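Lab notebook, bench 4. Still working through the backlog of constructs that have no structural model yet. Next entry is a single chain of 280 residues. Request: give me the structure tokens for it.
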Amino acid sequence: MPESPEVETIARNLREGTAGCFAIPGLTISGYKSYWQKTLAEPTTELLDQLLPGQVVKEVKRRGKYLVLTLSRHTVLIHLRMSGDLLTCVDDFDPGLKHIRFELEFLEGGRLLFNDPRKFGRIWVVEDTQTILGKLGPEPLDESFTSEEFFNLLRNKKRIIKSLLLDQSSIAGLGNIYTDESLHLAGIHPLTISKNLKYQTSKRLLESIRQVLNDGIERNGSSIDWVYRGGEYQNNFRVYGRTGQACNVCGTIIERIVVGQRGTHLCPKCQVLYKSREKD
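Model written out:
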């Protein structure tokens, strides 16, 4: 599933344009096509016929793992789930994609295509984004999210730290890859109970999360599956997907365990299992 660096990369491409993708802010929606009924979660296609045409794309941004397209009167929210991707193309160009589920057409020409082989992705067109985004926790890259707030979040919950970081209602945008990478950089074992971390350790974890996410964004995310395009962060993985290989820090062999039904990668030497706050 794309995590915040991959989603941020797509948002940036749509916002600024790249060699293979034109910018969409300022374009007017003339219509849409839906090829898979379940892709459109809200509203119905009948209502969407009345809502979309004539609306102008004002802004493209990210919130957690959601793409947010702000229009003149409504907002389009897109969750890519397991295999979703977005790209633009001119009207007479066939991108050769076999799994296009939804597309927006622009009055000025061109289309925004939502390609989703596994059909798990969803699109909402809403007036109030809080109906969907209100359930999300804070953004770790938001400068207003302080170390003190993060520490209180961890201290007030008695949860395995890996599971807590994956919980989008606790903190938004992290998935399996960047959680494993962040915990290794911070030197914290993924089975550590969150309330056992003292302030300085939790601060180090937040700093590690921010460093890993910013590095991922700088490298256009991670391309580890046939779905994703152009990312390079996979070349810099510390532990994720490196089971049986040597840790780049200490040389210990990277191990894989299962935490909350998720494959989890760690260095058993670099990452400390904090059993109580007193031992921090």
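Notes after review: The chain is about 25% helix and 20% strand. Residues 10 and 260 are 29 Å apart (CA to CA). Flag for follow-up if needed.
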